[in-house]
């Protein structure tokens, strides 16, 4: 076929590969396996959240909302941020309801970053963060965290900062390692951000999934950081509604109009009726609901770690989120991708190749998601235990 200008892809298209996470979900479906690959969290959503959305549809709340979201939801988010995160945000000027945490990062990055800017991410990283930067012609720069604690090496972070660095992306609790950044680590990041005049995007979508009594700290609460932090969170994980595409972000008032503009341009608004569902959940669910997630998921973490250990795959213990990175050198294969497929064939359990979270490396690691319904998790753990 002759080379067609019409069918020529953009320069960045070849850099963006389909996420290994989605690819493994497809393989899993083909094999009829149990999907511990994608972070879809197929647990039941709270009844109040479902009712709120259904009522809103019947009440005719099916048209575009204001571009920053419905006022009562922004007010509820502001109240939650003040009470649970210690962040004071004006719901009229500093909060945007977004199409998931994903839409929040995309719109913020479009509003703030230029092609050729550098943005630092901690590795292993969440692939969408990396690829979002690539999609915007921004250069992502990886600063490795060291296993098994995934500790931050401040000297490596300092060394990665160049005159082109515009921002740092922090994800805490972190997908895929389950690392939760400590106050001391966040203070080091804050000091460097202030010294080099950098923005920080913090993705706190797993803020309610915390184990062993660790504390979640929002970077924006540290002195001098609210003015240079974009705090991103959402409802996908906490309310088990990943398909609803509902999140939110907090940013300095001076940035919200530009970020809101790009969010409007891409999505117009977050889904209207679903915003009412999240609102009802926020207004009616007690604090015990959020605190209860810790106990439930810590039990699931421990069950999954025990099964992986029995299988001879060595898990690093996550302190948050609902993923486990496990050392899987014993599974046959030359790459993590081959190992993930070999494990799926042998056990019927799908995981994500560790290489999806590294620029280079991760070839002996596999990531397992334990955000599953209990019967599915039981089946997966039984199958893994038998792998020994
Ligand atoms: N951030 C992280 C770190 C995630 O793991 C995920 C889901 N895999 C998302 C964001 C996506 O969040 P949302 O559904 O709110 O876009």
Describe the model.
This protein is α/β, with parallel strands linked by helices and 388 residues long. The protein has two domains: 8-38 and 288-387, Aspartate Aminotransferase, domain 1 (Alpha-Beta Complex); 61-284, Type I PLP-dependent aspartate aminotransferase-like (Major domain) (Aspartate Aminotransferase, domain 2). Helix content is 40%, strand content 14%. A seven-stranded mixed sheet has the order 2-8-7-6-5-3-4, sandwiched between helices. The longest helix has 24 residues, at 287-310. 48% of the residues are buried. The mean pLDDT is 94. 4'-deoxy-4'-aminopyridoxal-5'-phosphate binds at residues 39, 100-102, 126, 171, 175, 203, 205, 234, 236, 242, 247.
Element layout with pairings:
Layout: H1 20-31, E1 34-35, H2 47-58, H3 71-85, E2 95-98, H4 100-112, E3 118-123, H5 127-135, E4 139-144, H6 154-160, E5 165-171, H7 183-195, E6 199-203, E7 229-234, E8 247-250, H8 256-267, H9 272-284, H10 287-310, E9 314-315, E10 323-327, H11 336-347, E11 349-350, E12 352-353, E13 365-369, H12 374-385
Parallel strand pairs: 1-11, 3-4, 3-5, 5-6, 6-7
Antiparallel strand pairs: 2-8, 7-8, 9-10, 10-13, 12-13
Helix pairs in contact: 1-11, 2-9, 3-9, 4-5, 4-8, 10-12
How many separate domains? Answer: 2
Helical content class: 25-40%
The CATH superfamily of the largest domain turns out to be Type I PLP-dependent aspartate aminotransferase-like (Major domain)
CATH fold-level label of the largest domain: Aspartate Aminotransferase, domain 2
Oligomerization category of the chains in this entry: single chain
Averaged pLDDT: 94
- Strand line-up across the major sheet: 2-8-7-6-5-3-4
- Which strand-content bin applies to the residues? 5-15%
Radius of gyration (CA) equals: 21 Å
Which ranges are low-confidence, i.e. pLDDT below 50, for 5 or more consecutive residues? none
């Amino acid at each position: 076929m002759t080379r067609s200008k019409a069918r020529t892809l953009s320069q960045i298209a070849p850099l963006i590969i389909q996420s290994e996470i989605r690819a493994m979900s497809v393989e899993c479906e083909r094999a009829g396996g149990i999907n511990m690959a994608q972070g879809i969290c197929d647990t039941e959503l709270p009844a109040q959240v479902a009712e709120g959305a259904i009522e809103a549809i019947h009440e005719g709340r099916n048209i575009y909302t204001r571009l920053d979201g419905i006022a009562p939801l922004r007010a509820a988010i502001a109240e939650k941020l003040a009470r649970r995160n210690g962040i004071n945000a004006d719901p009229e000027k500093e909060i945007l309801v977004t199409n998931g945490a994903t839409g929040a990062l995309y719109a913020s990055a479009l509003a703030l970053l230029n092609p050729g800017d550098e943005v630092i991410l901690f590795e292993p990283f969440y692939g969408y963060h990396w690829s979002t930067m690539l999609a915007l012609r921004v250069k992502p720069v990886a600063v490795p965290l060291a296993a098994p604690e995934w500790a931050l090496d401040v000297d490596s972070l300092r060394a990665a900062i160049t005159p082109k660095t515009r921002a740092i992306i922090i994800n805490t609790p972190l997908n895929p390692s389950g690392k939760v950044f400590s106050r001391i680590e966040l203070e080091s990041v804050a000091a460097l951000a202030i010294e080099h005049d950098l923005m920080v995007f913090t993705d706190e979508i797993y803020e309610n999934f915390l184990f062993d009594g660790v504390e979640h700290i929002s970077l924006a609460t540290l002195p001098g950081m609210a003015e240079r932090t974009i705090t991103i969170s959402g409802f996908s994980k906490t309310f088990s509604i990943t398909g609803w595409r509902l999140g939110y972000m907090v940013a300095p008032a001076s940035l919200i109009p530009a970020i809101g503009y790009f969010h409007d341009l891409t999505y117009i608004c977050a889904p209207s009726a679903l915003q009412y569902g999240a609102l009802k959940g926020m207004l009616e669910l007690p604090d015990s609901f959020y605190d209860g997630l810790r106990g439930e998921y810590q039990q699931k973490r421990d069950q999954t770690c025990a099964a992986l250990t029995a299988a001879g795959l060595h898990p690093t213990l996550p302190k948050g989120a609902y993923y486990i990175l496990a050392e899987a050198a014993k599974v046959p294969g030359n790459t993590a991708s081959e190992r993930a497929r070999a494990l799926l064939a042998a056990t019927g359990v799908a995981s994500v190749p560790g290489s999806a979270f590294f620029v280079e490396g991760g070839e002996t690691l596999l990531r397992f998601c334990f955000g599953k319904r209990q019967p599915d998790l039981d089946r997966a753990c039984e199958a893994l235990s038998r792998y020994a």
